[in-house]
Design goal:
The chain is an alpha/beta fold. The protein has one domain: Rossmann fold, CATH 3.40.50.2020. It has three helices and nine strands. Strands 4-3-2-5-6-7 form a six-stranded mixed beta sheet, with helices on both faces. A three-stranded antiparallel beta sheet has the order 1-9-8, covered by helices on one side. The longest helix is centred in the N-terminal third of the chain and has 18 residues, at 17-34. The protein is globular. It binds inosinic acid (IMP) and magnesium ion (MG). Its EC number is 2.4.2.8. Belongs to the purine/pyrimidine phosphoribosyltransferase family.
């Protein structure tokens, strides 16, 4: 899907396809360097928003890695965080002793990642770190240590590149701000 296919629903583009590509390449290079002497790297993608980041970031990493997925409850069809985290799909991997890198689309309140970090650490992982494509300013208020951040974005509801509103717009190649008329704002 392209911008011209839904331009009435988008107020502005905040991160272009080109910017995402360039930034993920930089992040992948750093990750490859940081983990090159480790004996494991497991990327844990948070479904469903992180699918695009996982696909593109993992291909920029030049050292061996494994992938696994978790699904946790999120906004549903609303644009406000609930703060309630529930595991909808757990990992298939026993992460005891492994270096885990959580791959996320966006950190908003930080509640989801704060919870996920503690949950994965409690399973005996050797390390648990976070890579996110986007971060909203609110995230700074929560004590979540994020190792790799792609872009800081304004405190608006954004869609595209995996991020949805009521399951729409995930296949946009860029990140944009959703027009309030779409969600009745
Ligand atoms: P948090 O717990 O508030 O940090 O955010 C939890 C999840 O909500 C994120 O991983 C996203 O999947 C989703 N989310 C947060 N902000 C947005 C947004 O602006 N657009 C789409 N999804 C979002
Ligand atoms: Mg997410």
């Amino acid at each position: 899907m392209k911008l011209e296919d839904c331009k009435d629903d988008i107020v502005k583009v905040v991160v272009t396809e080109e910017q995402i590509k360039t930034r993920l390449a930089e992040m992948g290079k750093r990750i490859s360097e940081d983990y090159k002497d480790e004996d494991s790297l497991l990327l844990v993608g948070v479904l469903r928003g992180a699918i695009m980041v996982m696909a593109d970031l993992s291909r920029e990493i030049s050292i061996p890695l494994h992938m696994d997925w978790m699904a946790v409850s999120s906004y549903g069809a609303s644009t406000k965080t609930s703060g309630v985290v529930r595991i909808l799909k757990d990992l298939d991997t026993d992460i005891a002793g492994m270096n885990v890198l959580i791959v996320e689309d966006i950190i908003d309140s930080g509640l989801t990642l704060d919870w996920l970090l503690q949950n994965l650490e409690s399973r005996g992982a050797k390390s648990v770190k976070i890579a996110t494509l986007l971060r909203k300013p609110e995230a700074a208020k929560v004590e979540v240590d994020v190792e790799y951040v792609g872009f800081d974005v304004p405190n608006e509801f954004v869609i595209g590149y995996g991020l949805d509103y009521a399951e729409d717009y995930r296949h946009l190649p860029f990140v944009g701000v959703l027009a309030p008329h779409v969600y009745g704002g």
